[in-house]
Amino acid sequence: MTRQRPQVLKAYGTLSGADAVVELGELGPWRPKLVATDLDGTLLDSAGEVTPRTRAALEACWDAGIPVVGVTGRGPRLLDSVRTALDGRGIAVLAQGGFVVDLERDEVLRTVGLPRDQASAVIARIEQVTGPLIVAVEDAAEQSEITGPLRVQHGFNWPYPEPAHLLPRHEVLPDGPVLKAFLRSSTLGQDELLALAKQVTDPAQAEVTHAGLGFIEVLPPGITKATGLAIALERYGVGFADVLVFGDMPNDLPMIAAVAEAGGRTVAVANAHPAVQAAAAEVTSGHDADGVARYLEALSLDGGPTNV
């Protein structure tokens, strides 16, 4: 019997400031042509829900002809939860950009895997500077299998209530490619672990990041939220300069940088990681205070000036 996955997942790893309310003031005449937002810790509240206020703000965007793209680290095995959050509308970018899907057409626009040998070599290089790590893997061969379980080394302490194969370390990596690998240290925090991993990881071999969950992620080279979002933008005929983006964790930094460099608008929620608050041009209220909704409301999208 297949176990049904929860469509709502409680938030983990969020920082202080979730309830903070930020007075936004006058936001000027600029209006986006597309809104891109992280989900956990940004659009969703601590219960993993889209509040009625936030849902209304998203509907107002769509009514104004402004698509909303959810950009998340959640993998395809959690697609149902992403579909629920976005009300089944538009394009969703999952797996930090490695899996992009048109929710309305059930059309996969991108799916990328990291070869097993390459993943193994990257993990080994990282362990040379961090010491032994505990590993979990999302199998690229099972990306279309929404019920496909995660491959998790004993002792990883995976935070979400979902099916998993508990395996010894030498069996965690599958024979084929992986969508991404998760690395946890028993002695290093996620920021320190990521900093060390970046020192020894060649971007031509893999991307490394973290989403605030206590571990880092190893992804195929060139896979970031920015490159995943670019696929959605191409489908909508919108450039990064016309994007309003919201985020909270280091995995959001590539898309925040891409939007900022193009002249779009970048916003961190009040509970964002310090690196994200430093990178974003503006800060809105925390994710438990409807920060995304408050910002969208302040833009007065219903008939206000646009940036065209």
How are the SSEs ordered, and which strands pair?
Elements: E1 34-37, H1 39-43, H2 52-63, E2 68-71, H3 79-85, E3 91-94, E4 99-102, E5 107-111, H4 116-130, E6 134-139, E7 150-153, E8 164-167, H5 169-172, E9 178-184, H6 190-200, E10 207-210, E11 216-219, H7 225-236, E12 243-247, H8 253-262, E13 265-269, H9 274-279, E14 282-284, H10 291-298
Parallel strand pairs: 1-2, 1-12, 2-3, 7-8, 12-13, 13-14
Antiparallel strand pairs: 3-4, 4-5, 6-7, 6-9, 9-11, 10-11
Helix pairs in contact: 2-10, 4-6, 7-8
Task: Give short descriptive properties of this protein.
308 residues, alpha/beta, 8-stranded mixed β-sheet, 6-stranded mixed β-sheet, 14 strands, 29% helix, 20% strand, disordered N terminus, disordered C terminus
Count of helical stretches: 10
Q: From the alpha-carbon coordinates, what is the Rg to the nearest angstrom?
A: 19 Å
Chain-averaged pLDDT:
92
Shape: globular
Strand element count: 14
Proportion of helical residues:
25-40%
Order of helices and strands: EHHEHEEEHEEEHEHEEHEHEHEH
The largest sheet has its strands arranged as: 5-4-3-2-1-12-13-14
From the N-terminal CA to the C-terminal CA, the straight-line distance is: 53 Å
Please indicate the percent range of residues in DSSP E strands (runs of 2 or more). Answer: 15-25%
Stretches with pLDDT under 50, minimum 5 residues: 1-5, 303-308
Q: In terms of structural class, how would the helical and strand content be classed?
A: alpha/beta
